[in-house]
């Protein structure tokens, strides 16, 4: 941990030297938002889109954030990832209370924290567990309040899974840390339409745009989890996973058809789109 570059209130340090007050509202109330921006060979994917999503989350939480400072912080961290794969994690909280209180003061100073991690991003298929979505009702805000995700994902871990696929009343919402796509029995690519129950994933949007005007144009809408029993391929999308297929989904009859040609063609289209995003300078 000692060599992980981190930044707090604009000051660059190593992660082990960052000190945060126990009265930070990020700590006491999860009154905070975050972003994870992936980097490949030191280049970010959809930098502007990640910043725009953070701005939207801050607006929905009435956080008065100076985003010029945020962008400067992230770029300082990104400079430590020169020619490397990894990600920048960045978090904004409402600030530090003088005394813990549900009612926050109007003059709190916004708290900014982030770090850069050099890491190889996952590429091998994973298993998942189907579960009911018990998270709070505004998952379109990228909040650090992730207890529902954590409880479900660690239950899945006890069964040998790395993810969960969640539903409300039999209709797909999303995964614990990803959006979900699948082929239905008719060969159409499906995903849930956006709502307050679903985070608008950056990688989700890249894939949808990449498949537009192709035979695999994505059909967004209400997706019944009963579809999974007859699907040849279910996969996850996220900034750190890219496109990651599921080998199986506990609670359904689904099993991955590894040689399914439709998925292989979708991967090619997605990879081309990702490459074009990497070529766009920040």
Question: How would you describe this structure to a colleague?
Answer:
The longest helix is centred in the last third of the chain and has 18 residues, at 261-278. The chain has an 8-stranded mixed beta sheet with strand order 9-8-7-14-13-10-11-12. Helix content is 24%, strand content 28%. It is globular. It folds into 2 domains: 5-118, Aminotransferase class 4, branched-chain amino acid transferase, N-terminal domain (D-amino Acid Aminotransferase, Chain A, domain 1, 2-Layer Sandwich); 126-278, Alpha-Beta Barrel (D-amino Acid Aminotransferase, Chain A, domain 2), CATH 3.20.10.10. It is α+β, with helices and mostly antiparallel strands and 282 residues long.
Secondary-structure topology with pairs:
Blueprint: E1 5-8, E2 11-14, H1 25-28, E3 32-40, E4 43-44, H2 47-60, H3 67-78, E5 86-93, E6 111-118, E7 126-132, H4 147-157, E8 163-168, E9 171-175, E10 179-183, E11 189-192, H5 202-211, E12 219-221, E13 234-238, E14 242-250, H6 261-278
Parallel strand pairs: 7-8, 7-14, 11-12
Antiparallel strand pairs: 1-2, 1-6, 3-4, 3-5, 5-6, 8-9, 10-11, 10-13, 13-14
CATH architect. name of the largest domain: Alpha-Beta Barrel
* Radius of gyration, in angstroms, nearest whole number: 19 Å
Count of separate DSSP helical elements: 6
**Main sheet: strand order:** 9-8-7-14-13-10-11-12
